[in-house]
Amino acid sequence: MLDRAAAVLDAQPVLEVRDLRVHFDDYDGIVRAVDGVSFQVMPGRTVGIVGESGCGKSVMARSILRIVDRGSRVVGGSVLLRRRSGVEDLMQLEPDSRPMREIRGREIALVFQEPMTSFSPVHTVGSQIIEAVRLHSGSSRAEARREAIRQLEHVGTPHPGYIMEQYAWQLSGGLRQRAMLAMALVGGPSVLIADEPTTALDVTTQAQVLELLHSLQHQSGMALMLITHDFGVVAQIADDVVVMYLGRVVEQGPADAIFHDPRHPYTRALLSSMPSVIAKPRARLATLPGAVPHPLNRPPGCAFHPRCASAIPGRCDRDTPRQSVVQPSHSVNCHLYHEADPT
Amino acid sequence: MTHRVRSAIGPVARFICRRLAIGLLTIWAISVLSFTIIQLPPGDFVSNYVARLSQTGGVGTAEDVARLRADLGLDRPAYVRYVHWAWNVLHGDFGRSLDLERPVSELISERLGLTLLVALGGLFFAWVFALPIGIYCASHRGSIAEYVLTVIGMVGMAVPAFLLSLFAMYVAFRYFDVDLGTVQSPQYLDAPASLGKTVDLIRHLILPTAILGLGAMTRLFRILRANLLDEIGKPYVVTARAKGMRELALIVKYPTRIALNPFVSTVGLMLPQLVSGSLIISLVMSLPTLGPLLLRALLAQDMFLAGAIMLVLATLTVVGMLISDLLLAWLDPRIRLQY
Predict the structure, then answer these.
(1) How far B258 CA sits from the closest chain A CA (Å)?
(2) Which residue, of A144, A162, A186, is where some domain finishes?
(3) Distance, in angstroms, between A66 CA and closest chain B CA?
């Protein structure tokens, strides 16, 4: 708790993404999956990264750890990680180098959407957790085993000794995701990136896992980066929100501001398409027309303008909107909030 | 507890028992089949024998022929002959070769060792090379080395074994002074077993084994490469990477382990293929394996010999299948615990 208090006091971001650009080669050309994304992750806080599928959220998460698939490459920007030894730019490290591998799992851990396929089907859950323990400590098999069981207990799995001997496909969805979390936490990371961690779960399990994430974060003071398409999930645990559209940030700010004073038409559209208990009965749920365009056919100007109800003809379809600060720490990239550039 | 104990023995024991039973049933079915196939061509050993006799000027009277048939039991109905044959086989008596006039078991046993040696050697060769090459090709997709290896693989698959054998024999004789036309150098032929003799044997067998294994190897490595490429994109590989594992270590530990499944299940098919595939190579390099003997027995309608060899090949197939099933169960808990 002292650590956490100290971390909050000095208020330096533990992870800072600056103008990150990730491209990958498609058959038809270069896809700009992440196109100049910047945001900060503060220790002990939760950042929700929100957007429809295909917005580059997952690619961004993997780029931070330098585990993007073959054919993708980080073409610009930096990811600054604050460690005990100082600040390090992860984009300057070689993907398969020892310093980068030591950051994975120990400083920044990753939890995926599908715990079923994220575990190897032919290795026991225990052996995979033990492996994670031993990758980051010189402990013996027996010590690593005890540590793995301790972690499983920590994330609230019943009969951890039994779970250790099971294969992922023998466990329920909720247990699998808990085991996944245990594996991610063995290195004591300062940042946990959870990529759609609850999407594959049913609603009650979803709530349990979110609650667990929240309490684990509270205990350890780590930062949580939660990637999701579901504003409902964000509403439950996020402190800050980053809204992405086609590889770019369109709006970011504290969760309160985003929920109660959304500025970008895309954020508003996402929020109004959320079912609500205070809505009138039989009221139709608003839908966002169209779909996310393929990144290869990115619309000119503001990429959202073809789907935007308030688009300004001649401006939104021509100029890329710059960032406007609407409140301290609340910013939006939209032509509605700043004057036209003098041309 | 919701699930109850289904039987006294564990799932693994049940799995093995079932596979063994299926294997025995298969061997029996194949014994019937091979016996039938031997009977299919018109004529029998005696008519063949008489034809050969008359070619060389000898004469066989009708009574002689009938007596010979009766002596050999060829006048009785097929199913009686089958039961008789099968009964004797169960007691280790495979009958006498009608053509070579020696006990079949003797003929087979003196060639079985070399046959197995060459086949298992070929299998070993195929595995040892296919595994690293397959892993390399999958993890270095699109590199020049991968293209070169793929082309070599294609050539290895396309060039007929006899051509390779002839070429290898020429090279071995011309440049390494090894005569591949024999299994042993002349000075060791009747010598007692010694280190020198073993080395000499290995020297003679390396090339035929390699040629035999090459075809299997190219097929195996292409299977492994394709499976590995499927597996390498799976989320559990990304998880392993996110844990901080070294790239090579994680590829060998996770996707390769799963891509091995089809690799292992081909062992059962490879073994008999290698035994019968050695026929042409054995003929060209005059290796005394079962292949040429089977060919000769079939041509001469030497039914006891041909039937016995087929039975041996079938048993090898079943044993190969059993081994690959057991290996699969050992490798993959999904098979072991769910079936």
Answers:
(1) 7
(2) A186
(3) 9
